[in-house]
Design brief:
Keywords: Membrane, Transmembrane, Transmembrane helix
Shape: elongated
Number of strands: 0
Protein name: NFD4 C-terminal domain-containing protein
Pfam family, one: NFD4_C
Distance between the termini: 22 Å
Helix content: over 70%
Subcellular location: Membrane
Structural class: mainly alpha
Strand content: under 5%
Number of domains: 1
Membrane topology: Multi-pass membrane protein
């Protein structure tokens, strides 16, 4: 899980760089990362916490996707985009063009990508902490 998070962090950093053609590469890596998370998370939850309350645990895992979308897209990304759009609209008013708030350039999303990469690295660190804490248990079970 930690490896997947690191791969996704590098994909977000690569996307923040705004190089030509990067969207295709980033889409592949983010897709692989999200697919791997959805494949690994249920088995990890059942392995760590047992099957007695697996339904509740799986629902807790599944609620992470819409909750993360709300926080990252609805609050963080939109707030940053609106900030830079308002900043650029001041320039548009100065030159006499009146349009809706739009943001042009990589500045609109690069900070959001860096924030997402940071959260991926925090998730990777937390995954490694879980590995360290469960290493002894797995050594006794399968060692």
């Amino acid at each position: 899980m930690a490896v997947i998070q690191v791969i996704m962090a590098f994909a977000f950093v690569y996307y923040a760089m705004d190089w030509p053609g990067q969207i295709y590469i980033v889409t592949v890596f983010i897709g692989i990362g999200l697919g791997a998370q959805w494949a690994i998370a249920p088995s990890s939850a059942s392995e760590l916490f047992g099957l007695k309350s697996f339904g509740a645990l799986y629902n807790f895992i599944a609620i992470g996707c819409p909750a993360g979308s709300l926080i990252f897209s609805g609050v963080i990304a939109s707030g940053i985009y609106d900030y830079y759009a308002e900043k650029q609209s001041g320039l548009q008013e100065q030159y006499g063009t009146e349009e809706s708030l739009t943001c042009v350039g990589s500045i609109c999303y690069s900070l959001t990508c860096w924030i997402m990469a940071g959260f991926c690295m925090v998730a990777a660190a937390l995954s490694l902490i879980v590995v360290q804490r469960t290493k002894g248990v797995y050594a006794q079970l399968y060692g």
